[in-house]
Structures are given as C-alpha cells and as structure tokens.
Amino acid sequence: MCGIMGYTGKADATGRLLAGLRALEYRGYDSAGVAVMDAENRVRIVKTKGRLRALEDRLEKCPVHGHCGIGHTRWATHGAPSDANAHPHGTDRLYVVHNGIIENDRELRAELGARGYAFQSQTDTEAAACLLDSLYAGMEDPLAALRAAVARLRGSYALGVIFLDHPEEIYAVREGNPLIVALGEDGGMIASDIPAVLRFARDCYVLEDGEIARVRADGAEFFDRDGRPVCKRPERIEWSTEAAERGGFAHFMLKEIHEEPLAVRQTLGRYVKDGLPDLRGAFDGECERLTMVACGTAMHAALVGKWLMEWLVRIPVEVCIASEFRYNRPVLSPNQRVVAISQSGETADTLAAVRLAKSLGARTVGVVNVPGSSVAREVDQALITCAGPEISVASTKAYTVQLMMMYLTAVQLGLARGALSRERARQIVAALTALPAAIETAIAQSERIQRMAACFDDAENCFFIGRGLDYPGAMEGSLKLKEITYIHSESYAAGELKHGAISLITRGMPVVALSTQEELKEKMRSNMREVASRGARVLLLATPQTAELAGDAEEAFILPDTDALLTPATAAVAMQLLAYYAAVRRGCDVDKPRNLAKSVTVE
Ligand code: M6R
C-alpha cells in the first residue's frame, strides 16, 4: 500500500525516482508524485492523480532535474485520489512521502491548525509533515525533529523526508511499515521494497521499527529512537534484475505464471534433501497442533495445508483469517506451532497475528517469499520460498510455492509422527519434483483455457465449486477471477449449493467445477447436472481419472496427470490462466486491478 522511493547521488534524481516507482507501482497506483532538489537547491514538486504514466507525462512537459529527491505512488486511505492528496506533502522547510496510516491525524490537525498551519489536502500524511515542520522549526536538527515526531505519531508508517536546508540528504523512519536503505555505486536510496532498487544496488539495510536513517550519496547512518547510532549489516540481494521486469510478456501476471515451474524447482531445491523434506528444524520437537494465519491467496494455501495435514498426518490444523485472529481470542498451547503464510511478509494483519501468537507464548514459523520482510524477521523460524519478486497484484507463483511448503510440512510431520512411511514420503516428494514438468504441460495447453475464458465475456456472476481437496482450490480460483475481471464470483463446497446458493443460478451463468478426486467424481457429476439443469454453463477442470465428467460440461480442461494429492497446484495454474485470459478479453488492467494493492500494510 503506497510505494516510497528516495534517491541522492550523482545520477539524475527524477529518472531514478521514476525507475524505482515503476517497480513499486504494484503497491498502489491512484496518484503519484516527486519532490526533487534542483541544481540551485530549490525543491520542485510535481504530482498528479492517476497512474505513474500521468506523472511521467507531466514531467515530460515540465522536466525537473536534480540530485536528490523523494517519490511516491499512492493507494488512497485518507482522502480520495486527487492532485492535492497525492504525495509528497510538505511545507517551506521539508517534504514527506508516507506509506501507512497516522491514526492520530485528526488530533494533530486540530492542534497544528490552531497554531496556524493551513492544510492543502485531506491526507493524514500532511498532518505528519506539519508536525515535523513544527518540531523542526524549534530544533533545526532533522534527527532530533524526527525522533520527536516519532514520539507523537500513532499508527503504522514509513516516511521518507527531505529537508530543504540539507539538500544532499534523505531521512527515513519506519514504524510498522517496510522501508529499506540501499547503497549503489552512484548514490544512496530508500525504498518500500527491493524491486525498486534491484537495478541500482545489491546491498540493502532493512530498517527496524523506530529506527531513523540518514542517507547520503556515499553512505548511510542509522539511529535508534533515542538517537543512539545503530550499526547495521547490509543484506545481499540475490534476486536477478530481470525477475522484476516484464521480459516480453504482456503482463507481469502472465510472466509470473510462466515462472512457476522454476519457482517450484528452486523452492524444492532449498527444502528437499536426499529425497525427503528438510525444513531446517522448524517443526522439530513436540508439535501436537498447528494454527495457520494468513490472508487472501495465502489463506487458501493454508486451507490446502490443513486438508493435507489432517489427511496425511492426522494432526489438528486450524486456519484463521489473519485479520480475525485476535477476535477469536485464540487458545494456543506451547506444544503447537503458529504458521504465518505471506508472500510479501508485510501484510499488516498477518504480522499482527504473529505478534499476538508470540505474546501468547506460541512458537511461530513463517512461510514467506520476501527475505528480510517483517514477518520473516519476527517469526521464530522463517522458511523463505523461492518464487523471486512477485509484481502482479494477483498472486500466482507465490501461491504455488506456498503449496509446496504445505506438502513438505505435511510429509515432514507425517514422518516425525509415524503417520507416513518413508516410502510414501519419498513417493510424495518425488511426485513434487515432477510437478514443474506437469505445470509446463498445463501452460503449453493454454489455448484450451483461452476458449474456456471466452465463456466469461458477458458474465456478471459465476460460481466455482469443488469437494474435499478441490474446495480450497475452488476458493482460490474464484478469488483470482473476481480480483482481476471484476465478475462477481463465489466459491462453494459443491454439496452445499443445494442449501441456498443454487437459487442464484441463472441461465448462462458460468459454473467452474473443479473435480480432481476420483472418489468424489460421481458426487461432482450430480452437482454439475444440478446446476446445468438450471441453465448454468458448466466448465470443468478435471484429471485424466475424472475426465469422463467432460460429457456433462460445456467446456473441459484436463489437467496433466500427477499424484492426486498434487492437483491443487496444477489446477491453480489452470485457474490463474483462466482468470488472466478472461480479464484480458474483458479489457481489464490485469496487473493493476482497481481498488487493490499488492502489499496490504494497513489493517
Ligand atoms: O503478501 P501476502 O501473501 O500476505 O498477501 C495476502 C493477500 O493480500 C494476497 O494473497 C491477495 O489476496 C492477492 N491479491 C490474491 O491474488
């Protein structure tokens, strides 16, 4: 939610800020802006409602050049998208870009308004900028003013700040929202996330809550909230530059679907040793129960994990939507694990759930894709998946590798608890190793999926249905479709339809039936017939073992043959492609669906 970029150094600051913001646009895209110090150390502000493209257009018409600046791409929270609400916000002394929410902004506005500040926007950011300005006026020391501001601000935020009388420096502070500092050959940078700096630097420093950074062209200093210097070690960024670029694909989503075989191979490469899982001790010792916390797609991976672990391991697993975890008043015990699943590792609700679980004495494990992210750093043990940067708002490859971690966890626990023989364990891991080839086969047959996608051209509503292991898969397929096509889509356990939702079926409404489990085939056939006889267009995703159901469907896609346990992964790829092609046909902005942002860093 909102992307921050800052640069100071030898290169042209505007160009660098735009390059960084382009890579961060997935975090928010309703307005964008930059504040750049020009050669005479005057600050130039250019900002606008709309995509980054609109900002680039403005900058083409009125170029701004300089050596130091901050930039922002916004996902609105306080104040609708508009030129006035676009960041940076500031005064004649300083400018601020912000990611997060200042919870006491009303109180600050009232106080600062009474002291003569006139606000130009409806944002909480402007309250923070004016607060900082009022503190700086008395101190004239950026670090002291920032420390004093941190003591007054409530909420979660990451701020990038330039002070007009310190024209070579960028200041940054974080409290709850991600921020990194990166040092490249031609200057220093701050950014919300690694992709923004990938092309320019390989060493980055992850700010901790309450830490303040002062960044110059040739280095950075860090201070804690009491002003004491902090010695930080840089983390080496291993992701390739190309990984964060579209590389000839029409959209990041399509590129990332094509990267799934590699992501799976790399993740298995890291966590499989001698044909068996090696989860680095994350589940060693007593583990009688699991609670999984996650949001959205990651929560669907957890639901698949629950099914696998209860079937294969006979261990009770509870899945909690992270935003609801605290309201459940969770009952946790020391001999269980709380597993947080998150691509970004920055989802505010998932992070809050981890913190609550830890405060209740539980041991926590994170399945996280972004190394150095907040969840990765706060859990007792982080299992980093190897999908590389995921830019598309709709999660694809990150989901598949989350599934891989669910399989490996189930196998590892199954072995430890004696619920799985070594032979069966090796068999499942061998089947996982064959999965990338199966995914490649599914992708190679995407023409058939494109045909199916045409059935959504005029759809306003649709259902995804499945039973057993296919039910969480149906939930994920439905989420993917709705988030990028804007078709109202619901997922149902197929047997539940008759208890109410079947009344919503109308003539021509697509119903995607996911049927990969042979033993449930006949029950699914009945459910498909029930909806077809009420006018639905039944679209089937099946396996070679359930392919005979195609006779009851208008369109069918037969997934490549795999161990029946692994169909959630192949089906997910097919449904991602289905959503993708349906969205493209409907002219939707696939990578940047309306109202959404990739990292949900506000609660
Ligand atoms: O970064 P996270 O995995 O914690 O994100 C969780 C959800 O916000 C995310 O999966 C979201 O549902 C995706 N847009 C789905 O495609």
Written overview of the protein:
With 603 residues, the chain is an alpha/beta fold. Helix content is 36%, strand content 24%. The protein has 17 helices and 27 strands. A hairpin with a 2-residue loop joins strand 16 (272-273) and strand 17 (276-277). It is globular.
Question: Mind sketching the topology for me?
Answer:
Elements: E1 3-9, H1 13-24, E2 31-37, E3 43-49, H2 52-61, E4 68-74, E5 89-90, E6 94-102, H3 105-114, H4 124-139, H5 142-152, E7 155-163, E8 170-175, E9 180-184, E10 187-191, E11 203-206, E12 212-216, E13 219-223, E14 229-230, E15 235-236, H6 252-258, H7 260-271, E16 272-273, E17 276-277, E18 289-294, H8 296-313, E19 317-321, H9 322-325, E20 336-342, H10 348-359, E21 363-368, H11 374-378, E22 381-384, H12 397-416, H13 422-444, H14 446-453, E23 461-466, H15 470-485, E24 488-493, E25 510-515, H16 521-532, E26 537-542, E27 555-558, H17 567-585
Parallel strand pairs: 18-19, 18-20, 20-21, 21-22, 23-24, 23-25, 25-26, 26-27
Antiparallel strand pairs: 1-4, 1-10, 2-3, 2-4, 5-6, 6-7, 7-8, 8-12, 9-10, 9-11, 11-15, 12-13, 13-14, 16-17
